[in-house]
Amino acid sequence: MTERLIGSRVPDLRQVVVDLILRYRMKRGGDRPITPEGLKRNAARFERANARLALPPFVAIERVKVGSLAAEWVSMRDQAERGGVILYFHGGGFVMGSPQTHRVVTWRLARATGRRVLAIAYRKAPDHVFPAWVDDGAVAFAWLLERGHAPKDILFAGDSAGGNLALAVAHRLRREGQPLPGGMILFSPWADLGCEGESYRSNQRRDAMFHAKSVRETGAFLTRGGDPKHPEASPVHADLAGFPPMLLFAGSRELFVDDARAIARRAAASGVRADLHVYRHMPHVFPLLAGVLPRAKPAYDTIKRFVEETQAPTARA
Q1: Is 98 among the domain residues?
Q2: For a surface tag, which of 20, 108, 295, 317 has the fewest beta carbons within 10 Å of its beta carbon?
Q3: Taking the complete model, does pTM exceed 0.85, yes or no?
């Protein structure tokens, strides 16, 4: 495991302003009790807010069906593809989000890597329960294999709950003796639904987006009637032996930073390459904010180097 601390000890003005905006918009009043109705309202509000975001003209979107799932390909109009694809799992606490809400990160991934990105609309709570989203992720990987993509030419990527899902799907594949993807890119993975990491306590005031109490209650809601330490619900408890190389990012002030550290340590202990980059003063899933936080943009240069170092794409069948 390698952990790198990135950025100046002093936040810049934009980081300070974004921190204040996030606190006002997300953390204010964000500790209400978790109910199915409230989760649905929040999900609808999140979808409406992100539907207004404009895409750069050089980004191409192609909607497809992956089995019964809605999905979309994201690619660059003005950039030659280098081979290989990325299967992206969006975040949103397993209760909100979609491929559309996370285009701000999928198009940047496509541009940085030269790969097409497939983002799927997996099933979510409260209408569905674990392991529905893991089942959907495995279906999407199989769909790519059926279309001639070699396993090693497929990268998994995901943010927050989507980072959890990327790890859970890889665990499912390995458990079933199936081939694994060629690598993993994880942004602030929420890898412990039991929320046992020390940063859930130490960063509860510093995190600009979430109340630790609400995150714990959401984790309890998602695992109700089950085991919160199931390795495909909380991959911090998974055996990561045989996993592909992984690149992880987290913000130093977020609740979830110790989840990323736990995954990186567990992977390294199993002989898996795990590069963790912790950015000072950055919020949860900070690469999504690269458009307003210049200090987040180097993350995509790191991703480009990681892909070039670890991947050798083959021709598509």
Answers
A1: yes
A2: 317
A3: yes
